[in-house]
Amino acid sequence: MADGDMQGEGVGYWDLDRLVTDLAAARSRWRQEQQHHAEYGAEGFPSRANLVKITGALCGALFPLRLGPSFVRLHNEDAYVAETLQTVLSRLYGQIRLELIYAMKDDPIAAVDAAAARIIGEFAHSLPALRTLLDSDVEAAFLGDPAARSVDEVLICYPSMLAIIHHRLAHRLYELGAPLVARIISEIAHSHTGIDIHPGARIGHGFFIDHGTGVVIGETAIVGDRVRLYQGVTLGARSFPSDEKGALEKAQPRHPIIEDDVVIYAGATVLGRIIIGSRSVIGGNVWLTESVPADSNVRQAKARHEVTSRVEVSAPHRVHALLESTDGIGENI
């Protein structure tokens, strides 16, 4: 049977008019219940797909010879940066404007345009300082990882650098008043790297995440200078305060403060508004909910254990075969 015949017969399996009517009714109920949120869709919505392209272009403008297109060379990098920024900043302005139409729904459109212009202008002029800050992150990764053979390798290969670049961009937009666009940018990096950094988190210079997968840094976390984290580290909240109606209070300080030169090893969980003092070392798999002073060394308590040979316990004949082998290699094992 032809595809057209199948499609024609399939129409009888559902009542399209009823589906459209019922979906419209469901949307109407939702909008009435959520009127205090308005709805982005009334004027448009910041696009994740567009922001993927925008952040990719911003990465290229910040590091043209390494993260830009292959045709960029020393002789044409300034021209490439100029052309890229002219286009990408205009597109980013459009995404910010869509967010502000919702956030400033009671203001005239001229005020929305002015606010979006202010944000994109200040963001644009922040880019040289962001590049310098990111240089310190690249250098920290190179100096902190014995496997790194060059700063170029760090920039091109390390997923943590992708996450940090996105965070630096997102955090600046968050500060300037575009938190939704900032959150989308941070989630783009999260989906690519497995590193989840809320754009509200404040992170100092020389930041390095080794390996990175599974790292979580919450909205109100404050991270000092020259801090190093390993995979699976969580800087999270211990509790979530609520108001008299039971709704969660937003943006309350609830995540840790990590002071300068702290190292936190793989799998450690640091929860609540506690302070980890400068130059402290937090060992792997530690669960920490209390502040520690500067120069602390926090380790997981050692469990008592006994080391035995699995081979000797489960297959003693294999041990004998090894001992009796003439060449000492034990080919029969």
From TrEMBL:
Xref: SUPFAM superfamilies: Trimeric LpxA-like enzymes
Record carries keyword Amino-acid biosynthesis: yes
UniProt keyword annotations, A-Z: Acyltransferase, Amino-acid biosynthesis, Transferase
GO MF annotation list: serine O-acetyltransferase activity
Catalytic activity: L-serine + acetyl-CoA = O-acetyl-L-serine + CoA
UniProt xrefs under Pfam families: Hexapep
Enzyme Commission identifier(s): 2.3.1.30
Any single GO BP term: amino acid biosynthetic process
Enzyme class: transferase
InterPro entries given in the database record: Hexapep, LbH_SAT, Ser_AcTrfase_N_sf, Serine_acetyltransferase, Trimer_LpxA-like_sf
Family: Belongs to the transferase hexapeptide repeat family.
Protein name: serine O-acetyltransferase
Native source species: Sphingobium yanoikuyae ATCC 51230
